[in-house]
């Protein structure tokens, strides 16, 4: 008696006695049941009985007959399905309406899916009936299982026929239809594509071998045509929107009904047709390309440009190159305008400012810089505005890409250094803001302005030139107390130190220290005067260390009037009583004075330069009709001729004519004569005349500055070469030149030829010696 485990009854083997087994009768019965299964009538069949039929055939060695019979029935059924559900749905070639054609293609794709679902369902049921055969026969006969055989038969009778071509064409037509903007039934396409994925051939899935290749070929043809159409009909922003839309639609297509494995190939086609051949063309489109988008603040379109160009070969390089060209073009325009407006030569007249009620009223608005400085201030402000614009583009549209930032900085540095007066203009801009431009601003706003100015300074390669101008402008602000904020001055100094190091700002800091020490000395001096007879003129002296300040002693000291000389000698006596071994040289050209002048109508308080005071004192004891010639004034004061003319022009030719010039005119000539203008009238009590103001240098002054800078550079190169050779002892020429260039880059970019000349000079002075190979040097201790 047989036993079985609980829940899994064991099928009893056929009895040996009784009716003999007949393979033919068994197959007839089983094949009839298989046909019922294929016709979806399995509900009335006995699973146990049909399973036993298949089991008995395998048991009696009729498994080959069973296998081949089932294969034949499946093939016959597939042929029937094709005839009933697929072939009648082939689209007629005469259909011209795209919507009707799409609907016909959709019916065909649904027909395939219906056939597949039918086949899959019946093969699943057959696999259960033939489970015993699948366990025994396929391995022995080296044939596929029932399920795999079913897939092979589906390939032979459904796919590898003219049906396949119609199916592939239908899928491609659906894709084409969708690309043209129509709505399709994606689920129908997906159903067919899924079938293609399930079916394997020797070379891969049917999807890979039959559909994907043709799909990519059709896509390439479509997008080549699409690129030409878009280029001829769209401006740059619209072109980018269309291209991005194509990327998104193809990604959606891949995600919803194609295969992820097709994605890389499809994206490459998009890149090779829509982007790579047209990178420069699109980004440089007139009136709509990169320049236009930047001008009109189209940050979303610029972000789209960046997103599309970044992953494409050559895209980021094209973007960076075009950005550099755009900045250089804009920068060149700024440079040309700056050098053209007002000439930038600093020949504008020095202004005169009022003091009193009217000036206080004007003080509510931002004071204007002197006319000669306008081009400088406008140029720097334009550079900062341009930098702000591109910084916003970089931050908001280019995702703060560091490579893009490097290109932007490279372009700004290029056009800034192409401006011959960039160091001077930058210093003038800072000078204007530290004198008048930051009144009413908060500390944060002041810090922001100074940070922006440092941006321009950072681009300047000749920082030693900037230092010379900045030192001169700072000196005048400190001496004439024109800075609106000591904190802002020191804040600027600390920013310069961070950028260029302590050596760069050491002399500037020395100037601040001199101002503080001078203030303390004046407090002591005034206390001393309380115990002795004070001079008739009250003076305020600033003692400047010669090596810190940018002023040089005059070739010949002016002849000071007795009243001034007395005050100077009084201070000298005080100073030398506290310091031994020092020498004082009076720089009257840098001073100013307050005086009272009495005219016929009334008296006025005048603020004039020290030299102007010396000139006016010459007229103190003259009659109203008396005059002095230019030569007499020059002989009496011994003021340098250029400074003398400038002060006479301020007194006699500007807005407030304290002196009369004979003959009239704006230029001072050696034949002119001057008289005191007793009829002078003005509505205000206090008048400031010939205020020292910052302005661009004249060509002659610029040449002198350039010569001084070149001389200083020679010494710096000499010191650098000696310092390097003292450490290395022996170096080749090219290696030495490169090292000198590197070490001096924070100050200026030395010319290799200039370095070579300084090496020759050091050899002559026996600091170095040339080696026998003539290509290297030794240090001589």
TrEMBL record:
Keywords: Isopeptide bond, Ubl conjugation. Residues 698-711 have a biased composition (Basic and acidic residues). PROSITE patterns: CULLIN_1 (PS01256), CULLIN_2 (PS50069). GO terms for biological process: ubiquitin-dependent protein catabolic process. Residues 421-652 form the Cullin family profile domain. Residues 1-22, 334-371, 692-711 are annotated as: Disordered. SMART domains: CULLIN, Cullin_Nedd8. GO terms for cellular component: cullin-RING ubiquitin ligase complex. Residues 1-16 have a biased composition (Basic residues). Coiled coil: none annotated. InterPro entries: Cullin (IPR045093), Cullin-like_AB (IPR059120), Cullin_CS (IPR016157), Cullin_homology (IPR016158), Cullin_homology_sf (IPR036317), Cullin_N (IPR001373), Cullin_neddylation_domain (IPR019559), Cullin_repeat-like_dom_sf (IPR016159). GO terms for molecular function: ubiquitin protein ligase binding. SUPFAM superfamilies: Cullin homology domain (SSF75632), Cullin repeat-like (SSF74788), Winged helix' DNA-binding domain (SSF46785). Belongs to the cullin family. This is Cullin family profile domain-containing protein.
């Amino acid at each position: 008696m047989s036993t079985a485990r609980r829940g899994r009854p064991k099928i009893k083997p056929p009895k040996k006695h009784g009716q003999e087994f007949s393979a033919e009768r068994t197959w007839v019965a089983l094949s009839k049941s298989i046909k019922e299964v294929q016709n979806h009538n399995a509900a009335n069949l006995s699973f146990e009985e049909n399973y036993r039929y298949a089991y008995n055939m395998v048991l009696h060695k009729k498994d080959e007959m069973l296998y081949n019979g089932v294969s034949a029935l499946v093939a016959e059924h597939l042929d029937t399905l094709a005839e009933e559900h697929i072939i009648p749905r082939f689209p007629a070639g005469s259909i011209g309406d795209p919507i009707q054609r799409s609907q016909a293609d959709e019916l065909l794709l649904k027909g395939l899916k219906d056939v597949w679902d039918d086949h899959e369902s019946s093969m699943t049921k057959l696999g259960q009936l033939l489970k015993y055969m699948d366990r025994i026969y396929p391995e022995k006969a080296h044939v596929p299982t029932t399920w795999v055989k079913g897939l092979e038969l589906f390939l032979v009778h459904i796919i590898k026929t003219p049906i396949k071509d119609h199916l592939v064409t239908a899928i491609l037509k659906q894709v084409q239809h969708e690309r043209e903007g129509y709505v399709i039934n994606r689920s129908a396409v997906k159903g067919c594509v899924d079938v293609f994925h399930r079916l394997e051939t020797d070379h891969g899935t049917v999807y890979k071998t039959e559909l994907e290749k043709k799909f990519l070929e059709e896509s390439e043809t479509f997008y080549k045509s699409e690129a030409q159409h878009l280029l001829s009909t769209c401006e740059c922003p619209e072109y980018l929107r269309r291209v991005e839309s194509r990327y998104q639609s193809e990604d959606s297509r891949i995600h919803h009904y194609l295969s992820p494995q097709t994605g890389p190939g499809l994206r490459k086609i998009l890149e090779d047709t829509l982007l790579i051949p047209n990178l420069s063309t699109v980004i440089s489109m007139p009136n709509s390309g990169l320049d236009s988008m930047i001008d009109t603040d189209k940050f979303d379109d610029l972000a789209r440009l960046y997103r599309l160009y970044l992953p494409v070969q050559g895209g980021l390089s094209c973007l960076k190159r075009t950005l550099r060209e755009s900045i250089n073009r804009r920068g060149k325009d700024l440079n040309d305008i700056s050098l053209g407006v007002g000439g930038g030569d600093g020949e504008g007249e020095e202004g005169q400012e009022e003091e009193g009620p009217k000036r206080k009223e004007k003080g509510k608005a931002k004071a204007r810089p002197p006319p000669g400085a306008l081009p400088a201030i406008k140029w720097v402000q334009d550079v900062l505005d341009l930098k702000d614009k591109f910084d916003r583009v970089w931050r908001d549209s280019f995702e703060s890409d560091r490579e893009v930032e490097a290109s932007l900085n490279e372009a700004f540095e290029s056009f800034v250094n192409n401006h011959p007066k960039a160091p001077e203009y930058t210093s003038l801009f800072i000078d204007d803001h530290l004198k008048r431009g930051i009144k009413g601003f908060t500390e944060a706003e002041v810090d922001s302005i100074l940070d922006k100015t440092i941006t321009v300074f950072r681009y300047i390669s000749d920082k030693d030139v900037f230092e010379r101008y900045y030192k001169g402008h700072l000196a005048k602000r400190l001496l004439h107390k024109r800075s609106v904020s000591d904190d802002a001055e020191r804040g600027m100094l600390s920013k310069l130190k961070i950028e260029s190091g302590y050596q760069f700002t050491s002399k500037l800091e020395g100037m601040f220290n001199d101002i503080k020490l001078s203030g303390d000395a004046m407090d002591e001096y005034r206390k001393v005067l309380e115990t002795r007879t004070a001079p008739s003129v009250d003076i305020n002296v600033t003692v400047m260390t010669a090596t810190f300040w940018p002023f040089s002693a005059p070739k010949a000291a002016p002849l000071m009037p007795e009243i001034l000389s007395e005050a100077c000698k009084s201070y000298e006596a005080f100073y030398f009583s506290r310091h031994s071994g020092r020498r004082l040289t009076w720089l009257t050209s840098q001073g100013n004075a307050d005086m009272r002048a009495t005219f016929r109508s009334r008296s006025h308080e005048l603020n004039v330069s020290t030299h102007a005071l010396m000139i006016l004192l010459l007229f103190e004891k003259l009659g109203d009709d008396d005059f002095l010639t230019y030569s007499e004034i020059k002989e009496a004061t011994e003021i340098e001729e250029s400074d003398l003319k400038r002060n006479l022009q301020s007194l006699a030719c500007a807005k407030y004519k304290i002196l009369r010039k004979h003959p009239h005119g704006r230029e001072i000539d050696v034949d002119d004569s001057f008289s005191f203008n007793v009829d002078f009238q003005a509505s205000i009590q206090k008048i400031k005349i010939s205020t020292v103001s910052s302005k661009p240098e004249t060509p002659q002054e610029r040449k002198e500055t350039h010569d001084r800078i070149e001389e200083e550079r020679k010494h710096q190169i000499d010191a650098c070469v000696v310092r390097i050779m003292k450490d290395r002892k022996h170096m080749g020429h090219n290696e030495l030149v490169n090292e000198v260039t590197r070490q001096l880059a924070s100050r200026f970019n030395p010319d290799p030829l200039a370095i070579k000349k300084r090496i020759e000079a050091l050899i002559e002075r026996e600091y170095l010696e040339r080696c026998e190979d003539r290509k290297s040097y030794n240090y001589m201790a």
